[in-house]
Description:
This protein has helices at residues 3-17, 22-29, 33-40, 48-58; strands at 84-86, 95-105, 108-117, 132-146, 149-153, 158-162, 167-184. By secondary structure, the chain is α+β, with helices and mostly antiparallel strands. Strands 1, 2, 3, 4, 5, 6 and 7 form a 7-stranded antiparallel β-sheet that branches. Strand 1 and strand 2 (95-105) form a beta hairpin. The longest helix has 15 residues, at 3-17.
Amino acid sequence: MDLEQKVGDAVRLLRTSQTLTLAEFSKKSGVSTAMISKIERGQVSASLSTLEALAASLGVPIANLFATTVERKEVSYVKANHGIEMRRSGSTYGHTYQLIGSAAANGSEAKCYLITIEETAEGQPMFLHPGIEFIHMMKGKMTYCIGNDRYPLSPGDSITFDSEMPHGPEGLSGGPVTFLTVILE
């Protein structure tokens, strides 16, 4: 599919999602119905000023008209209970890591893990690594240490932090915990 057709399809999809007829869209945008029809069918390469008028009348950024022209690069899809069991530095402290997603783009990499800790181990680890980390508690309760601060985490709680600060679980309360962590480096 060529660029003109992709842009035309985007214009048509946005117009119809707002239940605008060609005539209504023409009046709202100031672009003739004949031109809009040609754009939607991919028969013309519309000028940027025309596309800007169409996008503005639809209430979207002009970039939205080009969204389908961007090549998709990397997708990670993992069915429930099919993540890859991993050994990481915390594994020796009773952490079970399951890699459930990863993707890289523009020099950054995101890794998603489902982590289970069965019990507090002696000498709980403190981790340091480049990037940003996000944790979302799913099961159980724990105190999580980031730098000198302590955060009580329960199911539904989330925390995001600079992972170059020392961080790690300090203690569990009431049995095993399971949480999702996303690391962006």
